[in-house]
Amino acid sequence: MTKRRILAATLGAALAVTLVATPASATGHSRGELLSTVDLGGLTAEELTGKLAKGPLAGQRAEHGVDSYRVTYRTIDPHGKATTASGLVVLPRTTQRRLDVVSYLHGTRASRHDVASVQDNLDRTSALLLAAAGDVVTAPDYLGLGTGPGKHPYMHTASETTASVDLLRAARELTRRKGVWLDPRVRVTGFSQGGKAAMAVGRALRSGADRHFRLGALAPIAGPYDIEHAELPGIFDGRVNPRSAMFYLAYYTVSMNRLYPIYRDPAEVFREPYAAVVEKLFDNETSERQIMEALPATPAELFTESFMARLRAPSGVLLRVIRDTDGTCADWRPGVPVLLFAGRNDTDVPFANAENCAADLRSSGAPARVMDAGAVDHFGSWFRSLPKVRDWFAHAR
């Protein structure tokens, strides 16, 4: 068994224990319990079509009007302790009382204020587009973003998964109160960080993470599924643009150091003057623009030579961190159709991520297909692929 498959088996077992053992928190409250709901308003089909026409999803038509809600619900933190999280739930305007559900998982957000339940951003627009096809859509903010407490554990696979599954439970309660029943088959998609998280959520649902929901279809977009063998090599061979590499690595290093002992002092990995400010920048209150303005243009300018060497050849704790993040594609069989969307000109998440994920799935007997979005960059892959995901989900009912 290869190292990648060993780590995937370990990750899968850990997720299964966390997700399946019981939906109860340490305080006795139920995970996924709906705590509060805020009505964010609605749009008619005509209004939503007009909204879509003004952005990168122009040309898409809404079949249904939609109503959006920010929900707060119970979940667990990376240590299994009780906490809360927020997320967006979008309901289509339809007379149907039994509806399909889509889980949409967002990409990298450094500020808690930049998520779909708080801001009318492109993640919210993406959720609205998916719901306009007649499906209930859940879009978790993840831990530490939106109105949730604490710091966001960026790229932490296990907590992305629990927050997402628990939002499905909260959405089931919300829709039940409105006289709507959710089909148990969940179709899962996501972009960038959310693409990788989508694979993990799919795996959890397939393994029985929830007594009601199960995996129905899987279509992630531009996910960094393989940091060890695709993302990090791409940073050092030029496939990942330096500015993006700097930002992702800084966010990842600071966030993961809160869970793993990567460094004791920021000066061990960050050069001055950045070592003195970098942890404060990634406090999930600072905007991405402010972060980018405060940090240099390349990883080599931000990180010490010794840490750059560790990134080139990860070992020890750093390798454990990376492998705990990776492994979402290996050693499991989804049992449902899987499409992996990616752009050939993506300089944030190289195309090799999708190719490696597909290879891992195929080695487990899963007929995954890589869907080439064409000569588009990272965000171009999102906007070009999402309408195709929506249409494919409609045919996968």
UniProtKB/TrEMBL annotation:
<dbReference type="GO" id="GO:0004806">
    <property type="term" value="F:triacylglycerol lipase activity"/>
</dbReference>
<dbReference type="GO" id="GO:0016042">
    <property type="term" value="P:lipid catabolic process"/>
</dbReference>
<protein>
    <submittedName>
        <fullName>Alpha/beta hydrolase</fullName>
    </submittedName>
</protein>
<dbReference type="InterPro" id="IPR029058">
    <property type="entry name" value="AB_hydrolase_fold"/>
</dbReference>
<keyword id="KW-0732">Signal</keyword>
<keyword id="KW-0378">Hydrolase</keyword>
<feature type="signal peptide">
    <location>
        <begin position="1"/>
        <end position="26"/>
    </location>
</feature>
<dbReference type="InterPro" id="IPR005152">
    <property type="entry name" value="Lipase_secreted"/>
</dbReference>
